Amino acid sequence: MLQLIREKFVEVIKAILPLIIAVMVLQFTLVQAPITLFLQFLVGSLMTVAGMVLFFIGIDIGILPMGRIIGSELPQKSSLKVIIAVAFALGFATTVAEPDVLVLSKQVDAISRGAIPGNVVLYVMAAGMAIFVAIAMLRVVYGFSMVYLLAAAYLTVIVLSFFTPAEFIPLAYDAGSVTTGVLTAPVVLAMALGLSSVLAGRSAVSDGFGLLGFASIGPIIAIMIMGILFY
């Protein structure tokens, strides 16, 4: 465990340290923010490092192994309908809990002053993600070509762009980028790799990767449809 903590601490420091250094350089050269605010930034940075270390350890020792077990056990004990339902449920639940998604939904609510409710945006994105995660699991089972799936999905996005209200188009693309974050990505990948591992003659590399890029299109389409139907 100590070795894992050290490894995650080094990884987090490598990721966070450039940001801290950049802010410190700006503080002492150009910005010169109030000292209280600068100290709050340093304390917040330390808390972020500690939180990220614990978070990534939790991902490694709990979420990834469980995701693989779920993916590998479901095909042996359940029907295809159950696999799809579980994929949908996990896709929805992880997206609702995704930190980046929560930040985006709150910002939308604040900037629009409630005209676009943050909770609505949150659940619409989660539903779009869940549907495409379920389709992604079907792709693993049946071996659909990822090329055709991506082409159909992006063609749908392009067509919807002509009908979506202008203010929803950038929001839709941001929705696609934030939904494959630090929580959703390991769950979806682990589940796909576990599912692929029990299917004869299948490659974990070709089956397990590309799914996140495909699944992230779901929230884009969902937000566009929401804009067309309700705004």
Layout of secondary structure:
Layout: H1 2-31, H2 35-77, H3 80-97, H4 99-111, H5 118-142, H6 146-161, H7 168-178, H8 184-197, H9 204-208, H10 211-215, H11 217-230
Helix pairs in contact: 1-2, 2-8, 3-5, 3-8, 4-5, 4-7, 5-8, 5-11, 6-11, 7-11
Structural class: mainly alpha
Estimate the strand proportion.
under 5%
Compressed to H and E, one letter per element, the order equals HHHHHHHHHHH
Task: Describe the largest sheet.
Answer: none
Q: Alpha-carbon distance between the termini?
A: 51 Å
Number of helices: 11
Whole-number mean pLDDT = 88
Percent of residues in helices: over 70%
Strands, total number: 0
Spatial shape: globular
Task: Write down the domain tally.
Answer: 2
- Low-confidence runs of at least 5 consecutive residues: none
Q: C-alpha Rg, in Å?
A: 20 Å
Describe the fold and architecture.
The protein folds into 2 domains: 1-62; 78-230, no CATH class. The chain contains 11 helices and no strands. The chain has helices at 2-31, 35-77, 80-97, 99-111, 118-142, 146-161, 168-178, 184-197, 204-208, 211-215, 217-230. Helix 2 runs parallel beside helix 8 and helix 4 (99-111) packs antiparallel against helix 7. The longest helix is centred in the first third of the chain and has 43 residues, at 35-77. The protein is globular. The relative contact order is 0.13.
